[in-house]
Automatic annotation (TrEMBL):
Domain of life: Eukaryota
Keywords tagged on the record: Developmental protein, Disulfide bond, Glycoprotein, Glycosyltransferase, Golgi apparatus, Manganese, Membrane, Metal-binding, Signal-anchor, Transferase, Transmembrane, Transmembrane helix
Co-factor requirement: Mn(2+)
Protein name as catalogued: Beta-1,3-N-acetylglucosaminyltransferase
One Gene Ontology term of the molecular function aspect: metal ion binding
Entry's Gene Ontology BP terms: pattern specification process
Gene Ontology CC, one term: Golgi membrane
Catalytic activity: 3-O-(alpha-L-fucosyl)-L-threonyl-[EGF-like domain protein] + UDP-N-acetyl-alpha-D-glucosamine = 3-O-(N-acetyl-beta-D-glucosaminyl-(1->3)-alpha-L-fucosyl)-L-threonyl-[EGF-like domain protein] + UDP + H(+); 3-O-(alpha-L-fucosyl)-L-seryl-[EGF-like domain protein] + UDP-N-acetyl-alpha-D-glucosamine = 3-O-(N-acetyl-beta-D-glucosaminyl-(1->3)-alpha-L-fucosyl)-L-seryl-[EGF-like domain protein] + UDP + H(+)
Pfam families noted in UniProt: Fringe
Domain Fringe-like glycosyltransferase: 122-335
Length: 356
């Protein structure tokens, strides 16, 4: 009896030892992977300066763009994933948390095609006076910022956008680039899921992990910081409640000063203020799209459900959604006119026999 007991005890001890060794090996591998991810410098991928203080390049060359493209985001496990609910999905008919209209949403820097046929408050921010554009809409604002695509110029423009939104008293601030098309109906439906008085930061990151930066605390002291940010290339939205909390770091000339503390562009600075300073997590939505993703993967049947679409060139190839219609690619390279006529077929310049 004692012998049997001794055998069982010995087997239990051996099994426990092997289990502990296995856990230690797996844990060590995970630690190595995390360390590799945290020590990788992403500054070269986004055209931002390195920790040594190098200035970002004025334009992305093909090699940098390819490296950036390869870092496209994958699903995050630590944030809410927001998509378009299907008709039969649970909660698809759930009433919105807050009823809003297009007049509650401050859309900054939208491509002109969005504003010529729809009545909603879109504000176009330019680097100088544009008489032709001003004839078409009253919401043209000259930033007096540099026309360069530098970190400083982009931050200057974002600072003006933020201040204009605060003055507007609207409920939502949405920034999009001028190569985006905004589906306002879907945008309103998405924002209606949240209260504008809560801390809401929603968009789509372009990297698959937090960006690493160096925060300047004083002339001689710096510290590393890492945070998620929603790329301006796909667009992002911020609730008024959260935007007001950003004021000490974003209003007036503070946004430019904050951007210089981390030496990163405008959309990165937004993420830094919200995530790193205020501790509010980004809500990722797969309904926002930038030109730094493969837009061919957006099915045509799903186009009406998207919030933003984009287009661009990648390795001398056109990167745009695959959209059929009577508009040729030469006449409509971005496919935005085709999308617009799909969503709003009664637009005067849309062909009445538009085929998809």
């Amino acid at each position: 009896m004692l012998k049997n007991f001794g055998r069982k005890l010995l087997l239990s001890m051996v099994g426990a030892t092997l289990t502990c060794l296995l856990v230690l090996v797996v844990d060590q591998q995970n630690r190595q992977l995390v360390q590799m991810a945290q020590t990788t410098d992403l500054s070269a991928l986004i055209g931002a300066p390195s920790a040594q203080g190098e200035e970002p390049p004025s334009s992305k060359d093909a090699q940098t763009f390819s490296a950036y493209f390869s870092q496209l985001t994958r699903d995050r496990k630590d944030v809410e994933q927001v998509g378009a609910p299907s008709a039969g999905a649970p909660g698809a008919s759930k009433p919105p948390i807050e009823e809003i209209t297009a007049k509650d949403v401050f859309i900054a820097d939208c491509t002109p095609i969005c504003i010529l046929d729809l009545e909603f408050p879109t504000f176009i921010f330019t680097d100088g006076e544009d008489e032709e554009l001003q004839k078409k809409t009253d919401n043209v604002i000259s930033t007096n910022c540099s026309a360069a695509h530098s970190r400083q110029a982009l931050s200057c423009k974002m600072a003006v956008e933020y201040d204009q939104f605060i003055e507007s008293n609207m409920k939502w601030f949405c920034h999009v680039d001028d190569d985006n098309y905004v589906n306002v109906k879907t945008l309103i439906k998405l924002l209606s899921r949240y209260s504008h008085t809560n801390d809401i930061y929603i968009g789509k990151p372009s990297l698959d992990r937090p960006i690493q930066a160096t925060e300047r605390i004083s002339e001689s002291k710096m510290r590393p910081v890492n945070f998620w940010f929603a790329t301006g290339g796909a667009g992002f939205c911020i609730s008024r409640g959260l935007a007001l909390k950003m004021s000490p770091w974003a209003s007036g000339g503070h946004f430019m000063n904050t951007a210089e503390k981390i030496r990163l562009p405008d959309d990165c600075t937004i993420g830094y203020i919200i995530e790193s300073v205020l501790g509010v997590k980004l809500i990722r939505s797969n309904l926002f799209h930038s030109h730094l993703e493969n837009l061919h993967q957006v099915p045509q049947i799903e186009i009406p459900n998207q919030v933003t679409l984009s287009y661009g060139m990648f390795e001398n190839k056109r990167n745009a959604i695959l959209m059929k219609g009577v508009f040729s690619v030469e006449d409509d390279p971005s496919r935005f006119r085709s999308v617009h006529c799909l969503l709003y077929p009664d637009t005067p310049w849309c062909p009445k026999t538009f085929a998809y």
